[in-house]
Amino acid sequence: MPDRADLRKLQQLKDEQGELSSQDERKYKALKQATEREILQAADVVCCTCVGAGDPRISGFRFRKVMFCIQDMPAGSKIQLLVKSGKMQEHHAACTQGCAS
Asked: N or C, fewer C-beta in 10 Å, the chain?
């Protein structure tokens, strides 16, 4: 479990000084990645764009169900990329009503 107090301190230092020492930057990045991973693992639902589904932060995750808003449906090639990368086991096009225009 990442030390959130250390992450907060490093974030505050980065905000105040604009940058961190190389040692602090490495620690900051490691703590941030661990925290992001912990949050994603605990999530019941992960929302992202189709492009965002290729983000390294969710690599290695497997999803039983995926829902696309057909109003923002990407070109078929982007969906195929998600399927081939193993991010999807099945694909559901949904949200035919209730999406913002």
From this structure: C
